[in-house]
């Protein structure tokens, strides 16, 4: 007669397989729009980065400028890059800091392209939590990123 394997051994075997196949998270991308709410993503990204010894990349996307604002774009990009740097110093421990980027264009498209270029393993972003008509009218950057991201996306609801 065959002996049955105790349930605890089966659980241990399954958990062992899960642990062995832990995802490798080395690069975390956090898009920020400089609202106080977008910083909430950092409350989740920092402990994850520390746990996985990963680096956090901050990104802000400027809307494509009209002809009148085109001349101001280099100065504006520099200002925003400086602000991202200040946020990195304020909110990110030195060991998890990586490069910051200021991009120009449609936020979802630019964030997705950056994630692909930099082999990002996880995107952590805040969502406004709009539903139905409000989301349809506004169009959701977060939703577009979640649908098309080359990696997992952690969505933090704004409170």
Task: Describe this structure as you would to a colleague.
This protein has helices spanning 7-20, 40-52, 73-91, 107-117, 132-138, 141-148, and strands at residues 27-31, 55-62, 97-104, 122-127, 153-157. The chain starts with 6 loop residues before the first helix and ends with a strand. A five-stranded parallel sheet has the order 3-2-1-4-5, with helices on both faces. Helix 4 (107-117) packs parallel to helix 6. Strand 2, helix 3 and strand 3 form a beta-alpha-beta unit. It has six helices and five strands. It has 159 residues and is α/β, with parallel strands linked by helices.
Strand proportion, as a percent range, falls in: 15-25%
- Rg over CA atoms, rounded to whole Å, is 20 Å
Structural class: alpha/beta
Shape call: elongated
Distance between the termini: 59 Å
Profile the largest sheet: 5 strands, parallel
Count of DSSP H/I helices: 6
Low-confidence stretches: none
Give the overall average pLDDT: 85
> Looking across the biggest beta sheet, what order are the strands in?
3-2-1-4-5
Number of strands: 5
* Topology as a string of helices (H) and strands (E): HEHEHEHEHHE
Percent of residues in helices comes to: 40-55%
